[in-house]
Amino acid sequence: MIVAVHQGPFDRLPEAMAAAAERGAELIVTAEMGTTGYHIGAKAVAELAEPADGPRAAEIGALAAEHKLAVVYGYPERDGEAVYNSAQLLSAQGERLANYRKTHLFGDLDRDQFSPGDDPVVQADFKGLRTGLLICYDVEFPELVRAHALAGTDLLLVPTALMRPYERIADLLVPVRAHENQLYVVYANRCDTEGELTYCGRSTVASPDEVVAKAGPDEELLFAELDPAVLAQARAETPYLADRRPSLYRSLTEGPRA
After folding, report:
1. Please, which residues bridge with residue 98 across strands?
2. Measuring CA to CA, which residue among 188, 181, 98 is closest to residue 136?
3. Cβ-proximal residues to 103 (8 Å cutoff; 6+ apart), any chain
4. Residues with catalytic annotation?
5. Which residues pair with 159 in a beta bridge?
């Protein structure tokens, strides 16, 4: 399966989807809060938030159906009085396969705008791969990615808004998460500026064994080929999940024993 990452302005998504479809991609992944912008102020975010099945979902679903291309996009989701930092996976027919609400909020920037999601593992079956969603800061928590691995996730899609000077997350941490959990990670970032934030690009697609594709700091349409056989071989050679000893790790969630 070929996956594309759109590291560029969201208003150019139609052109990116057309180009990705022409290259044979079956999925395109975009950045965190791409539909509205991320650092635009809590009031603006609240005014632009809409339900998971709102007008923007219909618009992007129509693009997906037109290009026969599944898509992941980040957006502010309204549910009653709450607003969530969410990411949605739509099929190549424009139908919702999964919707995830960011569970780990990053500092005041997130907390001033969003409620935290409570469902850590959201998955869908896509092209023979068990596919999960996380958003930006979430992937920096090893427990959360391990929860995905234990739930059978093969492909972890992570829209992000990684800013300078945190390039090390894309360069170092994302490949490690893929290796230690024996899954693919697709980390889709921005490369523009909002206020005092400069997003660093460097979108990354990592397998358990290597960085399959890597973007630079500027606008780019990144492509990577994902092979389930790579996962099977990595899991056989380095069986981290099978070799775990959960009884030793209780303190990670329960605290040290008295």
Report:
1. 89
2. 188
3. 116, 117, 118, 119, 120, 138, 144
4. 32, 102, 136
5. 188
Cα 174 to Cα 140: distance, rounded to the nearest angstrom: 8
The per-residue b/e assignment along 230-241, b for 16 or more CB within 10 angstroms, e otherwise, is bbeebbeeeeee
Model confidence pLDDT, tens digit, residues 192-235 = 999 999 999 999 999 999 999 999 999 999 999 999 999 999 99
223: Cβ contacts below 8 Å, ≥ 6 apart: 2, 3, 4, 5, 20, 23, 25, 213
Would the pTM count as exceeding 0.90? yes
User: 18-62: per-residue pLDDT in tens?
Assistant: 999 999 999 999 999 999 999 999 999 999 999 999 999 999 999
Distance from C-alpha of 249 to C-alpha of 176, rounded to nearest angstrom = 20
Give the DSSP letter of residue 170: I
